[in-house]
Amino acid sequence: MTAVDEGQLRAVLEGLTDPLTEGPLLAHSRLNSLTPLALETGPGLRVHLTFPYPLAGALAYWQRRLRDALAPLVDPERLQLTLDWRVEPQQPQGKLAPLQRVANIIAVASGKGGVGKSTTAANLALALQAEGARVGLLDADIYGPSLGLLLGVSEGTRPEVVNEKFFVPVEAQGLALMSMALLTTDRTPMVWRGPMASGALQQMLTQTRWPELDYLLIDMPPGTGDIALTLSQQVPLAGAVIVTTPQDLALLDAQKGIEMFRRVDVPVLGIIENMSVHVCSACGHAEPLFGAGGGLRMAEQYGVPMLGALPLSLGIREDADSGCPTVAANPTGPEAQLYRDVGRLLGARLACRSGGADAPEITILDD
Fold it and tell me: Which of 127, 155, 237, 311: CA 20 to 30 A from 283?
């Protein structure tokens, strides 16, 4: 090979499909540059590609795939790939102004309680962090905040207050966390009516000095009541995720959650089916205790992605109770990998909200 033809390179890359965005690779990812290299072993090539979502766990996959695709143009041994990511902010619903220093706010919601929403939110936040994103969590379940316990925050921990006005979020497992549980005690139940609770949450969101975040996940209160509806209207959301179980009753309530977000023009980024199957720790037998395929049927009905199905696992429950969710407690385990798969897909589906990356600007340099 004496030279690399830009047209050939573009044709190869444009022919690749990103399985997470379900579209052409270059529709959302950016080809920043390509640089021909004069190596001792022969002509080579340096390629820099930026994805629109964090994908630390999939870098090896893309390294292999790109080397195989470009093999007709350059010896894979002389191909230097730089793969990274940049999370862009998406426009929130209506005319709401984005939150300062927070690129995207995502609501994690459920139609009813008891489906594992908070455990899913905590593990999903940790999964996005493990994939390379900067992540925060806001516990909006004001009557039953649990994220502090789930993330191992010591009892009595209080956020620092700056200028008598702003809270500094507590760091928990590397995440920026804010919760009503950090401002009260277990013996101080919230006996507020809906408007008071909604106002408190709005204040907690806007008067927290969040660090630079790619994603702020909000663990929403269960159901579609006053607080959930007010938050979905007043918080600048980039999208929402619905957590459900395969059980018919849970699916019925989850549908109400989808309809609520649709009515306030918040895009539903996908459905997570929790407790989808139980695998016996003694014999390995798998059984769908709460039914099978309900989340997928709902996703198809509403035309939204099925982000993933998570098992009913004793380990997930034990890790949550211990204050170290599964993604942090056993990062190489199969359940953690499932959460990370869901996190990557969520990031990709959010990136699809935009019209795609600008036309790639390829710079050809002689080295």
Answer: 127
What CATH number does domain 102-331 carry, 3.30.365.10, 3.40.50.300, 3.40.50.1820, 3.90.220.20? Answer: 3.40.50.300
pLDDT tens digits along 74-91:
888 888 999 999 999 999
Which phi and psi (to 5°) does residue 160 adopt?
A: -70, 145
Measured distance CA(225)–CA(222) in Å, rounded? 8
Supply 288's token pair.
């769908």
Q: Kindly report the number of other CB atoms within 10 A of residue 337's CB atom.
A: 16
Report the pLDDT value the prediction gives residue 358, as an integer from 0 to 100. 43
For residue 71, is it left (φ>0), alpha (ψ between -120 and 50) or beta? alpha
CB 52 within 8 A of CB 351: yes
Sign of the torsion angle spanned by Cα atoms 287, 293, 296, 302: negative
User: Whole-prediction pTM value?
Assistant: 0.90
